[in-house]
Amino acid sequence: MTDQSPDSPVLFDIVGSVAIIRLNRPKQLNVLDPAMGRGLVAAVDAAADLEAVRAVVLSGTGRSFCAGGDLGLFHRDLAGAPNSAADLIDLFHTALRGIALMPKPVIAAVHGPVAGGGFSLAVGCDLVVATEDATFLAAYTKLGTSPDGGLSWSLAQLVGRRRALDLLLTNERIDARTALAWGLVNRVVPAGEAERAAIALATTFEDASAATTAAVKRLVGDAVSASFDAQLDAEKASFVERAGTADFREGITAFVERRPTKFPG
């Protein structure tokens, strides 16, 4: 990520313990094309590999976080749309799998009109900070197609089957406050404050146990497809494993000594 220019479709920056990934096609509302897809995959991989990074913020430049996929790509060659779609979705899904598997929290900083794949990308992150002017729209069926980016899965998990079908089939546009009430976002902040608020949230992980954060993310990720009984076993195994670590010993000792924790590493 060191060869990026200000015109790169994806920008990558480090601020303290936080990696910031910015979608950077502002004139096109940050719609996803192959170059942005490749840049996003590379940025997610870079953030995962950097040991000093404890959390990641994903944001967008200009007036939208991301308005979906680049429809012009398909319109220029309608006959070749299936192949173009397959190639672009492969990149998009590789990035989303990287976000899901990354042991660090990924926080979406969302503003403006968020549609299609942008909606998928936002709710595919671990936490979402949205501005008051953010709106969310599925939009897929208006184009005669079905969702990608895991949106059908994410919505079903987050808001339930009936609301997921409503959002996907009727293309109702919802505002940030509705998204907050429905559990699609975690925080709503004033316009222009999404990235700053997301970075502030991300810095709270700086002094946390990185391995414990990773364990919690893994457990919650697995919980959506596990039975309650299996989840009890998984939680026990994780807790017992963590109980043998230096992080746990420090956490317990700091609690007993009534002092702030100082996790190693």
Short description:
With 265 residues, the chain is α/β, with parallel strands linked by helices. It folds into two domains: 10-203, Alpha-Beta Complex (2-enoyl-CoA Hydratase, Chain A, domain 1), CATH 3.90.226; 210-257, Orthogonal Bundle (Lyase 2-enoyl-coa Hydratase, Chain  A, domain 2), CATH 1.10.12. 48% of the residues lie in helices and 15% in strands.
The major β-sheet equals:
6 strands, mixed
Number of domains: 2
Q: Give the low-confidence spans.
A: none
Tell me which CATH architecture of the largest domain applies here.
Answer: Alpha-Beta Complex
What can you tell me about this protein's structure?
With about 260 residues, this protein is an alpha/beta fold. The chain has 2 domains: about 10-205, 2-enoyl-CoA Hydratase, Chain A, domain 1 (Alpha-Beta Complex), CATH 3.90.226; about 210-255, Orthogonal Bundle (Lyase 2-enoyl-coa Hydratase, Chain  A, domain 2), CATH 1.10.12. It contains 11 helices and 9 strands. It has helices spanning about 35-50, 70-75, 80-100, 115-125, 150-160, 160-170, 175-180, 195-205, 210-225, 230-245, 245-255; strands spanning about 10-15, 20-25, 55-60, 105-110, 115, 125-130, 135, 175, 185-190. It has a 6-stranded mixed sheet, sandwiched between helices. A 3-stranded mixed sheet has the order 5-7-8. α1 links the parallel β2 (about 20-25) and β3 (about 55-60). α1 (about 35-50) packs parallel to α3, α5 packs across α6 and α9 runs antiparallel to α10 (about 230-245). The longest helix has 21 residues, at about 80-100. The radius of gyration is 19 Å and the shape is globular. The relative contact order is 0.12.
